[in-house]
Amino acid sequence: MARNDGHEQAREFSLLLDDQLCFALYAASRAVTHRYRPLLEELGLTYPQYLVMLVLWEHGTVSIKDVGAALHLDYGTLTPLVKRLEAAGLVRRERRPDDERTVRVSLTGQGAELRERAEAVPSAIGAAMALSTQDFDEVKRILRQLTTNVSTGP
């Protein structure tokens, strides 16, 4: 059964590769992250590191737990990313004095300065996607709904 605006509809599913939404998502994700690669190499970042930096540029000092929640990443995946960013001098990790279990991540001066160089990345990716503003917003909306449905579904 497929969901459509909250109503169940009968749908035929096949095992043809071209019929698989998961493959279309996979191929699109690979193509987009491939397009990011040279832009991010100029910044000294990998794509996952860039995502961490986006959270920090937007929110400032954030707990590791909150970064993980924003990026849908578990602690074991996120910790090595943050450690590499720290080794590069872009972020610092600190335990909260009132709660030693909580690790906060904040930008260094170098990490804050990198934001200015990164400002060209979204427009370059947007140009590569070549979607109208309406299509871009609709794709984001559908993908967010898909994430919600799959994450909360049976």
Automatic annotation (TrEMBL):
The keyword Cytoplasm applies. Pfam families: Staph_reg_Sar_Rot. Coiled coil: none annotated. Keywords: Cytoplasm, DNA-binding, Transcription, Transcription regulation. The keyword Transmembrane helix does not apply. InterPro entries: HTH_MarR-typ, MarR/SlyA-like, Transc_reg_Sar_Rot_HTH, WH-like_DNA-bd_sf, WH_DNA-bd_sf. Residues 18-148 form the HTH marR-type domain. This is MarR family transcriptional regulator.
